Amino acid sequence: MRESEVLQIIRAAVAKAGDDAAILPFGETNLLLTTDMLHRTTDFPDGASPYTIGWRSVAVSLSDLAAMGARPLAVLLALGDPDLAERFIRGVLAGARACCAAAGTDLVGGDIDQHSELTVVGSALGEAANPVRRSGAGAGDLVCVTGELGSTQTALRLFATGAHERANALFCFSPRVEWGESLAPFATSMVDISDGLAHSLHLLARESRVGCSIEEALLPVIPDLVQTIPQEARSDAILFGGEDYELLFTLPEADLKMVSPIVSFRVIGRVVCSGVRLDGQDLPDQGWEHGG
Amino acid sequence: MRESEVLQIIRAAVAKAGDDAAILPFGETNLLLTTDMLHRTTDFPDGASPYTIGWRSVAVSLSDLAAMGARPLAVLLALGDPDLAERFIRGVLAGARACCAAAGTDLVGGDIDQHSELTVVGSALGEAANPVRRSGAGAGDLVCVTGELGSTQTALRLFATGAHERANALFCFSPRVEWGESLAPFATSMVDISDGLAHSLHLLARESRVGCSIEEALLPVIPDLVQTIPQEARSDAILFGGEDYELLFTLPEADLKMVSPIVSFRVIGRVVCSGVRLDGQDLPDQGWEHGG
Q1: Which of B289, B246, B241, B207 is nearest to B63 (CA)?
Q2: Could you write out the DSSP letters of every residue in A163-190?
Q3: Can you give the pTM of this predicted structure?
Q4: Is the confidence metric ipTM above 0.85 for this complex?
Q5: Which of A35, A73, A113 sits opposite B291 (nearest CB)?
Q6: What is the pLDDT of residues A144-174, one digit of tens each?
Q7: Would the CB atoms of B37 and A79 count as touching at under 8 Å?
Q8: Which residues of chain B have a CB within 8 Å of the CB of A107?
Q9: What are the structural domains, with CATH classification, of chain B?
Q10: Do the chains contact at A35 and B108, CB–CB below 8 Å?
Q11: Tens of pLDDT along B124-156?
């Protein structure tokens, strides 16, 4: 079965799953929970350092919290590895702790086990008085994206060609936790672009029962991508290549001046009544199936 | 490296890890978090049903919350599997949800991924105003254990001999969540017996800077064990066989009459100044290394 079909079964079985993180009302606020499984064959190319492996395993879950506008409270890490070599474990933990610290939170516990394949499961707990859902976009809102696209696809090319140092740096992406929190009072809908921009636009459109119309010329792209990926492959890398972990969000135009000083983002289009279009053409819901 | 050595590194790297679950002060209460990785080769013998796999993956984390006297709030499940067959996934989720329901909580989300080996990571969130630590036992307290010992060791024998139906039933242990909550106001220290009774006694003694003296004749044992395991192997199975997931706790004698009506348990000995002894003989700190 494809992951997307299995996820449908899980969604049906698990009432509250449907956003980037589960929302639990708790007192006068909400607790948010998310978990992600990453493993060697799918998520960590040859050349990825232990530090990068630890960083990224935590970052994908923190990115889920960021996409809900939540403040992270704590992170757990379950680690399986064939060798359990001390140097490797120390590297993974150092990367995981550094990513937690960068997001203002802590690694508070975990589990470890001998395993046939390197497998890392990060789980993150956050808090948000008003979490941002996928379902609030309204026609006329601006469609926006934080930072720059293309880091992961560029890093994968660089790992393949042996440029491991730059590849590791790009692979250690910053979960947009602070920006997510700043956006929470304004954004009408938000996701992280974990499965590619095209798929994320379709997600927002479907959950909000609207459409999106964006322009390719407005998409922010990292300079490394232009130098690394041949021109004919760039569009696909940006639109359908996954695991960018920038935030895709919608914003009423009136709030643009509130958000511009505190978050680095670009307006890439507008919410429309129906359809997902790039430069006026239908953009297929082509995704990226992965382990994050 | 042995798991126990790796756990030492993790403990040093992760300040708050040291009890069954991490404790996060939150408002006027505490949030508790725990995660456990289980996988095919280590944790699921041939004959374990999908339902049992799901149940047990959730139960080990709920047992960690029970050992802190916490109320479970939510559970997450990350699942990796080579085939992702629909019937199998549905079975795992049914077992996981049933275990959550039995403990008064819900499966709220998860992740799924194709993986070379069946791997399940449960994470649980709980709440406790006054979590029970491992470190509060005082000389003179009673040493007590809930329920009956030997379920997992008996189940493993039954799986090996093909008696799968009874083995699956024994393997789906009840996390002692309700008893843990009832004990929280009274118990001076508590753990779950995930790594064997002897090791758990040593844990409590070390963390509380005391000793324990217990009597073998007082240990409660499931009838199945007597029928299944030859007499010469029974002591080892009970003392050093792991994954019983009953609660081992210490209790001031004055509170015995408060706890007796609400929790099913046996007094098996007494907290002493130093040493861990069975029938007056030193009991070695022999553990059970596992994936839970």
Answers
A1: B246
A2: -HHHHHHHHSPPP-HHHHHHHTTT-SEE
A3: 0.91
A4: yes
A5: A113
A6: 999 999 999 999 999 999 999 999 999 999 9
A7: yes
A8: 13-14
A9: 3-127 (3.30.1330.10), 142-282 (3.90.650.10)
A10: no
A11: 999 999 999 999 999 999 999 999 999 999 999
